[in-house]
Design goal:
By secondary structure, this protein is mainly beta. Helix content is 8%, strand content 44%. A hairpin with a 6-residue loop joins strand 5 and strand 6. It is globular.
Amino acid sequence: QVHLVESGGGSVQAGGSLTLSCTSSIYAWSRYSLGWFRQAPGKEREAVAIIDSDDDSTTYADSVQGRFIISKDSAKKTLYLQMNALKPQDTAVYHCAADDTRPSFGGTLFDWLTENWKLGRSGFWGPGTQVTVSS
């Protein structure tokens, strides 16, 4: 059984920064692509960043590109999300996710995981941590 637990959320003013952490109990850590998605009240889940298990390349949603940085410490089995220049529209519950599935018929891994996590079709994720950005 996979356990993922997020921490580091909180309240911050616009322009501020937060760093989220996610500890995991994943046995085959290197097999999983890792990422963060968020969900605001009344809105769909939105993947914000992933690390591809094949080559550790990173991909970001357009909405956070240039402001967020995803990273991992494999020795600690911990995933991070450094969030800078936060905006009120970044307010959401942030979940870390691990997923060993890949698209079968082309398309990007980011789009594949975005759709799967939105629909809850694959992967594991933690209970989430709240991030609130005030203007």
